[in-house]
Amino acid sequence: MPRTIWSGAISFGLVTVPIHLQSATEDHSVRFHQYHLEDMGRVRVRKVCELENREVTQDEIGKGYEWSRDQVIPISDAELDNLPLPTAKAVEIEAFLPLESIDPIRIGEGYYLAPDGQVAAKPYKLLREALGRSSRVAVTKWAWHGRERLGILRVRDDVLVLHLMRWPDEIRDSAEVAPPAVQVSDDEIDGALALMETMARDDLSGDEFRDTYTEALEQIIEAKREHREPPAVPEPEAEPGQVLDLMAALNASVEKARASRGEGEADVHEMPAPKKTAAKKQPAKKTAGKKTAAKKSARKPRSA
């Protein structure tokens, strides 16, 4: 059972739900330490006071805010735990809104909320059932790790889940990385949609949705531990060149995707080639060209 990392209560109007905050995710990454390669001695980071030039213990270390180069304001954990805020010990529900209205870039780590004892079971279930039937999520605020947090409260199975959220001013302006202005044809968009259709899935189950990097790393570690050669590195696929014909690349991608799913030879008639290659079309693709022309003529009244 995951350990409790925060305790408090959900404040829902006049209803209070005592809860424990527990991590909802696990990290299975392979961890490395630093070693002296000559003798494989462990290399550690030591905490040294720069004024006394000596190593200090954890009991001697506290928090401080650098007001200026010559003045540091010490702040204790007790002072942080007793901030004069209504959210210091409670997750305050501020509003309810559809999950679709929240930009996913603002949603962060998720935590399970467990009811704190039998007395919390009924108000916990009440909030869970009401939230589930509302088809909305609750926007919350609470103080944690030295600052006030924004979050969303939602239902997953039979449990309430609290997600950290970033404040609006923590999201960088996307205009800084916007691509240069280019033109994309309707035929190219239709081709991309056809490729997306061949790659569509109902869920994320399947062998392709696993951490193959960690698996390969574990195989190397095990091989070296047993003093044997690590697994052979698979031959890499040919390096992709610069895409000069976008439609040709889309057609080839659809063929590859369908072949990988055991659908046989790909029929890409729904993805016509651009006009400049019309003279080189094979007879089997003339129908697609006519369909494209019909599409374009049908679009003209809307663009007028």
Order of helices and strands: EEEEEEEEHEEHEEEHHHH
Please state how the strands of the largest beta sheet are arranged side by side: 1-2-10-13-12-11-9
Task: Give the percentage of residues in beta strands.
Answer: 25-35%
Strand tally is 13
Q: Main β-sheet: number of strands, strand sense, barrel status?
A: 7 strands, mixed, barrel
Q: Radius of gyration over alpha carbons?
A: 29 Å
Mean pLDDT: 80
Q: What count of helical segments does DSSP give?
A: 6
The shape is extended
From the N-terminal CA to the C-terminal CA, the straight-line distance is: 64 Å
- Class derived from helix and strand content: alpha+beta
Fraction in helix: 25-40%
Q: What are the low-pLDDT stretches, counting only 5+ consecutive residues below 50?
A: 266-304
Would you give an account of this structure?
This protein has 304 residues and is an alpha+beta fold. The chain contains six helices and 13 strands. The protein has a seven-stranded mixed barrel with strand order 1-2-10-13-12-11-9. A two-stranded antiparallel sheet has the order 3-4. Strands 5-6 form a two-stranded antiparallel ribbon. Helix 3 packs parallel to helix 5 (246-260). The protein is extended. The model is unreliable at 266-304 (pLDDT under 50).
List keywords for this structure.
alpha+beta; 304 residues
